[in-house]
C-alpha cells in the first residue's frame, strides 16, 4: 500500500513538473514573441518618425510663400487680399431674401442672412 | 581469522546485502519492543510526507496558474498596461539632436536632417590612387590630389567628405571599398533659404550655432528637442522682403532694412535686410550681405528723432500742443547755426514742427526743456545702451555722448537726429512705446516672451503724439504712406551719411528712414523702413528724401500685410457699399 502511494506521488510530481515546465516554456515563448513584435513595431514607428521628420522639412520647403503665391496665381487666379476687400456684411446691399443674390452667395444664403441680421442688430 | 561482528542479544539472521543487518524489521516496531530509536524513524517519515505534500501543493498551484495564463485570458491587458512603469516605456527618439525653429504659426523655418560623414581608415585602403579616382567621380568638388593625399596618410582616421547627400552615400556604398566608413551626423537646413538669413544665422559643420538665433539659443536648441517658437511670421516676412527688394531696385539703393513690431508686446513680427544670403550654402561670414543692419547698423536717423524730441517736450510739461514757435529765424547756439533746409516756416505748433520737419522748431522746443531732461529721456528709451536682452548676438551699442560732452550745441543737433547714432531696433522699440500708450517693451523674437514694460511717457502724451504723427501722414512728408482705411501715422527722416573716414558728412549720400504705426485709433503694429543710399530718378524728380523712397515702400508693405495681420480697414458703411457696388458692376 505504502509503495503504491509513493509511486503515485512520484508520478504526480513528475507530471506536475512537466506541466509547469511546459507551461513556463509556452509562456516564455509567448512573451518573447510579443516582445519581438513590440520591438518590430517600435522600430517601425521610429522609422516612421524619422521619415515624417524629413517629410516635414520637405513640406516646409514646398510651402514657401513665393511658391504658394505663384501656384495660387497660375492655377486659381488668386491674388493677395486688398484692404477694401474686407467689408461688413451690411455693406452687401443686395437683398438676401430675394432671388437677386449672386449665385456664388446663394448657396450659403441662410447663414449669410443670420450674419447680416446680427450685424444690423449690432449697429 | 578476520574481522567478525556479532549482535549478542539478537537472533542471528542471514544477511545477503551490506547494511541489511541494521535494517529494522517490522516485527521490531511493536508496543512491546518500543524504543527511542523507533520514534525518530516515525518523525522523519512524517516530515518527509509533509514536505512532499507542500511541494505538491505549490506545484499544483503553479500548474493551475500557468494553465490559466497560457490557455485562458489570465492576463487582463488593461490592468497590465496600467501597471507598466513610466521608465519601462519605449522612448521614441527624435531623429535629430538639434531642435527645429518655427515661426509664430508653427511653420518650420530651420530644421536638421540626419546625414552621414564619410571617413576613411587609410590602413585598410589598399589602392589609394584607384579609390581616390573613384571618389573624385562622386565628389568632383574635391580635387583628386587631395583625396589621394588623405587616403595615403599613415593614421587610422581621416574625414573625406562631411554631410553627404543620400544619393552620394549610396554611390560610395556601391563602390564596396573596405576602409571607407560612414559616421552619422546631422545637417541644418533652412527651407526658406534667404528669407530669415539674418535672424536665424547659421551653424558650423558640427551643427553648433555660429550666428544669429542659432548661436544665441544654441543651448536651448541642443538640450530640448521641442521646437523653438519665434514671433516672426513667415508670410509677413516674405511680403516685406519682396517689397524691400523691389524698393532697392526701384531706387537703386545700396541696401534696405525693415522691422515690423507688435507695439503692445514688443514682439518682432518681421525683420529683414536686403541684400541677404542663402544660409544653406557655405558662404563667407564676413561678406557684406551677412551684416544685419536692423540690429547692428548704427546710424544717425535724422528727423525721425523729432518724434522723441516732441514726446519729451510734451512729457516735460513745458511744451503744449497749442504752443507756437517762431521758426522764421535761424537759431544760433554755441557757435552752431540751426536752419531749416527748405526755408523758414513762420509760427509753428508742435504738430506743424513735425509736419514741416522743422529743425529750428525742434531746437526751440528742446531749449525750453533743457539738455538734462533730454538726455535723461533718451536714456529711458535705451538710446545709450545695447539692447542686450534681445535674442540675437549681432547687437550694437549706440553712439551716445557722455554727460560732459552733452553741450547746448549737441542738445540742438540731437533734437533733429544728429549727434546720436542708434540702430533701427532701438528706434522702433522707442517709437512703439510712444504710440502704444507710453509703455516701453523690450523687443523680442520669442513668441512666449512677454515683457511687462515700463512707462516712459504718460497716456496723455502718447495720445497727443498719435494725433501729431497722423498729421505727418495726412498733410506732411509721409503723405505717400496714407493707406486708405488704416490711419497710418509716422515720421520721415533723411540723414546725410558720414564720410568713410568718419570726418564730416557726404551730402551726396543719405539714409532715408520712415517710422510708422497703424491704425492711429488703436495702434497694433509699428513699421520701420530704412533705405541706404537711395538714388534720385525720373519718378522721384531727382529727390532722395525719405518721402520719395522709404515712404512709398512703407505704403506698399502696409497695403499688403495689414489684411494678413487681420486689421480691418475703417471704411464707413457708405464707402464699403460703394466698393461693393463697383466690384459687382464690374463683374456684371
Q: How many whole angstroms does the radius of gyration of chain A measure?
A: 37 Å
Count of spatially separate domains of chain B: 3
Number of beta strands of chain B: 18
Q: Could you say what the CATH architecture of the largest domain in chain B is? A: 3-Layer(aba) Sandwich
Low-confidence stretches of chain B: 1-8
Task: Characterise this structure.
The complex is a heterodimer of chains A (123) and B (588). Chain A is built from four helices and no strands. With 123 residues, chain A is mainly alpha-helical. Chain A folds into two domains: 2-65; 87-122, no CATH class. The model of chain A has no long low-confidence stretch (mean pLDDT 79). Chain B is of the alpha+beta class and 588 residues long. Chain B folds into three domains: 17-73; 101-229, Alpha-Beta Complex (Penicillin-binding protein 2a (Domain 2)), CATH 3.90.1310; 239-573, Beta-lactamase (3-Layer(aba) Sandwich). Helices cover 36% and strands 17% of the residues of chain B. Chain B contains 19 helices and 18 strands. In chain B, strands 1, 2, 3, 4 and 7 form a five-stranded mixed β-sheet that branches. In chain B, helix 9 runs antiparallel to helix 18. The model of chain B is unreliable at 1-8 (pLDDT under 50). The interface between A and B is large, with 43 and 51 residues.
Amino acid at each position: 500500500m505504502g509503495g503504491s502511494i509513493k509511486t503515485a506521488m512520484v508520478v504526480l510530481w513528475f507530471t506536475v513538473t512537466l506541466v509547469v515546465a511546459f507551461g513556463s516554456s509556452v509562456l516564455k515563448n509567448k512573451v518573447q514573441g510579443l516582445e519581438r513584435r513590440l520591438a518590430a513595431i517600435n522600430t517601425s514607428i521610429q522609422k516612421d518618425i524619422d521619415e515624417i521628420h524629413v517629410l516635414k522639412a520637405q513640406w516646409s520647403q514646398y510651402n514657401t510663400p513665393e511658391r504658394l503665391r505663384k501656384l495660387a496665381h497660375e492655377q486659381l487666379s488668386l491674388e493677395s487680399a486688398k484692404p477694401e476687400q474686407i467689408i461688413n456684411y451690411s455693406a452687401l446691399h443686395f437683398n438676401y431674401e430675394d432671388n437677386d443674390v449672386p449665385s456664388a452667395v446663394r448657396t450659403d444664403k441662410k447663414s449669410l442672412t443670420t450674419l447680416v441680421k446680427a450685424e444690423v442688430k449690432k449697429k | 581469522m578476520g574481522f567478525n561482528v556479532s549482535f549478542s542479544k539478537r537472533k542471528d539472521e542471514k544477511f545477503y546485502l551490506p547494511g541489511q543487518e541494521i535494517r529494522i524489521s517490522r516485527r521490531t516496531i511493536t508496543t512491546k519492543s518500543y524504543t527511542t530509536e523507533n520514534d525518530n524513524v516515525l518523525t522523519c517519515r512524517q516530515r518527509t510526507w509533509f514536505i512532499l505534500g507542500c511541494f505538491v501543493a505549490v506545484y499544483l498551484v503553479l500548474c493551475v496558474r500557468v494553465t490559466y495564463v497560457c490557455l485562458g485570458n489570465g492576463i487582463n491587458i488593461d490592468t497590465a498596461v496600467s501597471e507598466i512603469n513610466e521608465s519601462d516605456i519605449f522612448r521614441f527618439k527624435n531623429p535629430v539632436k538639434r531642435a527645429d525653429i518655427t515661426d509664430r504659426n508653427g511653420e518650420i523655418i530651420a530644421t536638421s536632417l540626419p546625414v552621414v560623414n564619410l571617413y576613411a581608415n587609410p590602413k585598410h585602403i589598399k589602392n589609394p590612387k584607384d579609390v581616390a579616382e573613384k571618389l573624385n567621380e562622386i565628389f568632383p568638388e574635391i580635387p583628386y590630389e587631395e583625396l589621394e593625399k588623405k587616403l595615403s596618410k599613415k593614421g587610422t582616421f581621416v574625414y573625406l567628405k562631411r554631410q553627404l547627400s543620400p544619393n552620394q552615400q549610396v554611390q560610395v556604398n556601391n563602390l564596396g571599398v573596405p576602409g571607407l566608413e560612414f559616421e552619422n551626423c546631422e545637417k541644418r537646413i533652412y527651407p526658406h533659404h534667404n528669407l530669415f538669413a539674418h535672424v536665424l544665422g547659421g551653424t558650423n559643420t558640427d551643427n553648433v550655432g555660429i550666428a544669429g538665433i542659432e548661436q544665441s539659443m544654441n543651448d536651448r536648441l541642443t538640450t530640448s528637442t521641442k521646437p523653438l517658437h519665434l514671433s516672426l511670421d513667415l508670410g509677413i516676412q516674405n511680403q516685406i522682403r519682396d517689397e524691400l527688394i523691389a524698393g532697392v531696385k526701384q531706387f537703386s539703393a545700396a541696401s534696405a532694412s525693415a522691422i515690423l513690431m507688435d507695439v503692445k508686446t514688443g514682439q518682432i513680427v518681421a525683420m529683414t535686410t536686403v541684400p541677404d544670403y542663402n544660409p544653406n550654402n557655405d558662404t563667407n561670414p564676413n561678406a557684406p550681405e551677412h551684416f544685419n543692419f536692423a540690429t547692428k547698423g548704427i546710424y544717425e536717423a535724422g528727423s525721425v528723432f523729432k518724434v522723441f524730441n516732441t514726446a519729451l517736450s510734451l512729457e516735460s510739461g513745458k511744451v503744449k500742443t497749442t504752443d507756437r514757435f517762431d521758426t522764421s529765424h535761424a537759431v544760433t547756439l554755441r557757435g552752431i547755426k540751426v536752419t531749416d533746409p527748405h526755408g523758414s516756416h513762420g509760427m509753428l505748433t508742435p504738430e506743424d514742427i513735425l509736419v514741416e520737419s522743422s529743425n529750428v522748431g525742434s531746437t526751440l522746443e528742446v531749449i525750453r526743456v533743457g539738455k538734462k531732461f533730454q538726455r535723461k529721456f533718451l536714456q529711458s528709451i535705451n538710446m545709450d545702451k545695447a539692447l542686450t536682452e534681445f535674442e540675437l548676438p549681432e547687437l550694437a551699442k549706440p553712439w551716445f555722448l557722455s554727460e560732459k560732452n552733452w553741450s547746448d550745441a549737441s542738445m540742438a543737433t540731437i533734437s533733429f537726429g544728429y549727434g546720436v547714432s542708434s540702430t533701427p531696433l532701438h528706434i522702433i522699440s522707442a517709437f512703439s512705446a510712444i504710440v502704444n500708450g507710453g509703455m516701453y517693451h523690450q523687443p523680442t523674437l520669442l513668441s512666449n516672451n512677454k515683457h511687462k514694460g515700463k512707462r516712459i511717457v504718460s497716456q496723455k502724451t502718447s495720445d497727443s503724439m498719435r494725433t501729431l504723427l497722423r498729421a505727418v501722414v495726412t498733410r506732411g512728408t509721409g503723405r505717400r504712406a496714407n493707406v486708405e482705411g488704416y490711419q497710418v501715422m509716422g515720421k520721415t527722416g533723411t540723414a546725410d551719411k558720414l564720410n568713410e573716414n568718419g570726418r564730416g558728412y557726404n551730402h551726396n549720400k543719405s539714409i532715408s528712414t520712415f517710422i510708422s504705426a497703424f491704425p492711429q485709433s488703436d495702434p497694433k503694429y509699428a513699421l520701420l523702413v530704412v533705405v541706404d543710399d537711395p538714388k534720385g530718378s525720373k519718378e522721384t524728380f531727382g529727390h532722395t528724401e525719405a518721402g520719395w523712397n522709404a515712404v512709398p515702400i512703407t505704403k506698399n508693405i502696409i497695403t499688403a500685410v495689414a489684411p494678413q495681420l487681420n486689421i480691418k480697414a475703417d471704411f464707413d458703411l457708405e464707402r464699403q457699399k460703394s466698393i461693393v457696388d463697383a466690384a459687382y458692376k464690374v463683374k456684371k
